[in-house]
Amino acid sequence: MFNCWIWIFILLCRSSIADENSTRDADIFPSSPEIERGSTLKLFCVLGKHYTPHRNASHIIWKLNRELIAQENYNIINETVSSITIYNFTHNKAHVKCFIKYLGKEQLLVHTEVKSGFPPGTPRNISCIYDVDIKLTCNWTSGRETNLATSYTLYRKIMKIHGPIMQEPKISTCQSNTESCSFHYPNIPFGDNLCFQVKAENVLGKASSDCVPINMEEIERFQPPEILSLKKYAGIKKLLTVTWKIPEKSTRLLDVKCQIRYRNLYSNSSEIDTVMVASGEEISTYNLTGLWDCTEYLVAIRCISVESKLWSEWCKEEAASTEEKAPSEKVDLWRVIASSSPAGNRSVYLMWKLLSNCPPHGRILGYKIQHFPENNTALQMTNFTSDKKITLLLNEEAYIISVTAYNSAGNSPAAILRIPSTDEKSSQIIEAVRTFTTEEEMILEWTVSKPEVTEYVVEWYEEMETDPFSRSWQYISNSTKWKTNKKNFKLFVCYNMSVYPIYENKVAAPYSIQTYVQEKEPSEGPVADTGFPGKNEVTIKWNEISKDKRNGFISNYTIFYKPEGGKELNETVNSDVLQYTLKSLQANTQYTVYIMASNRAGGTSGEPKTFKTLKFNKEDVIFIAIPVGLSMLFLLGLWITCIMKKHLFKKVCWPDVPNPAESVAVQWPLDASMGVACEDKTRGLENISILEDCFPEVEHEGSLLMNREKRISGSTDINTNEAQNISEYKITLLNSDKKIHDNEEQEVAKHLSPSMPYIITDQDFRSQIHSTLIPAKKLQPIKMLEDDLSDSQQISIKNEENDNEEVLSREDFSEKSLFNPYLRNSVKTREFLVSENLSEHSKNEPKSQATVLPGHRQNVVGQSYITLDMVGLATAH
What we know:
InterPro entries: FN3_dom, FN3_sf, Ig-like_dom_sf, Ig-like_fold, IgC2-like_lig-bd, Type1_Cytokine_Rcpt_Type2. GO terms for molecular function: cytokine binding; cytokine receptor activity. The chain is α+β, with helices and mostly antiparallel strands.
């Protein structure tokens, strides 16, 4: 309680000082506090002068990290100071923030970081190392994890004893913030009465260890020795001499023990020899025996005092070789034979390696290669190389090849290999080969047909490898099983493996297989090609997955296909099938298809493709096209026929109906009101008829017709001249020109029809009467009149023609034409038969004397005319 009042007093003082001199908006006390975990935390927030008098301590709110602290933990000291109390604070580290809230807004004033931890524990496990005449280093472990900054002090105490009285110890200290501290030379005492103590301290408390006595001789550690020389002696095999020096300050009066470690470059293990060095000796020598000839060795040395427990570090390794001699082992030789060229030559790739089960004897300077035809040793050739491979160009004969390694002391034994001729055939000795793997090894087994064969060569290489020199091989004797570590192979890679039997110094025909040490699902799936779908089927094609992405042997392909909105189906085929036809598909339906390639480890699907089946297949198109094609051919033929026979079809189906308004058959005087020209169907006959411009009623028409018939029957006064004139018409008809008849018939037929009367207007009469009216000498009488009428009737016709000629001479017609062009019986017309042979007397004869023939009508002025009905009858005759 007293401490709280002190804090409040300090805060009030600081608040008053801040109001006068400080420009800060707020302050928080204590700043960055460190408290014991689980204790109570109390903080104060002081407002600056900037916020008064509008805001005060009641506007202050507190947050722990991002969480608002409850109001019951607040305490208002005065208008500018607010405090917060947090009970049982267990956070390792947290931020407490002071905000001011005004008009609904929060503004951060100040914040601080609070840490909680524990007091330090008692340091333990004190140990020291004395690097002679360099430094004394001690290490220890803390008693507990404090989570707070802790400092350590190392005390070194030297106890002085003078007789029975113990004097005050001499103490040296070393400060550190870690769990290690060192005393450096020359501040390093040496004696038996030493003890070490460690004291730990933080804001929550202190802790000290006991003073632990340590013997300096037991903690001495020498510096690594220095190898002065490592050499061989001429003429002495398998021996190396090493000479080294111990640091002067490490010898003292005690004996020193040293260890010599040596190993050759072809071995992973080392051997150690121990050597004792007498006290006071600085340089020592030792002979390493039982070594390999001409083999390079690496040598290192370390030393320790006989009283100490700590070895020095190993010195730097030095290398030297033993005495050299000629290689005693032949090389491991193999070959790859390429196919023969058309010229008969072939490339032979030779490769070799040093045997791994015995060391080389000396440094290999190079290799000598000799080859000659099997049947002619005199043609021997020699090559030298420093590489472990060579390419020879040989012909089709069998060859013997030998390879020897050499150094300064001599040559190794020759490794001999026979190359068969190109036409040489060897029997198949190996019957079957199989591979399987275990957790650590890959195993190859085979069976043979000749048990007497005891030597084999196993060859393997990656399937995608094209360099013949990249192949691996191994000779096997007296076994039909070969195994090697799986680490010698790449995972998920296909290997070609071959087993060659060696029989009677000849390499027989191999047996080859492919294998994977480990498989996984393919890296990618096949891409489907749907091609051109049909109505109910489609052929799916795909390509093989590239070899570098198969990751195993493809066992099968599965085709998955699904109609739009339907259920997914699938078909599985063997690995050698690269196309498949899906049948029983729905017509005019969209499908999604994809293909999955599978091996023993799993399957991978390719990208999905979509296709749509056709609505009709080829047969449907043919069945539809044939009728349509035949119909089109029929319509085309009908159209061509219509084009060629259009006049005939037009005449039969659509006969020409002349338009009376457009008639140009005759031309009347300008004062004529109406006319009609009509052509008899009889060849060579032209009749010019003039239609009556006034049409009486039907009853009047009938009375006129009856009057004509009476006049014709009652006429008895016919003179001889008129009969002669009728005869002249007959002669004229018989002698008429046929050509003129045909042309005129065709021209007039276009404008006239015996069954359909037509009208000629007054304007047409005036404009065309003179040009269209045929002269009397060209007119031909109607044949019907000649054959069917009696002499008295012919005389009446003659008289009527004279009357017609007189009527034509009139310049004006005042009558108007009234008729229905579509009703034949309603037509009221009159025809005038005009002839040049009529006498002037006849022409001038009074119209009242004219005789009306049957079929003729009498007009109002007494002029007779022929109706179109009579012309039709004449035509029928």
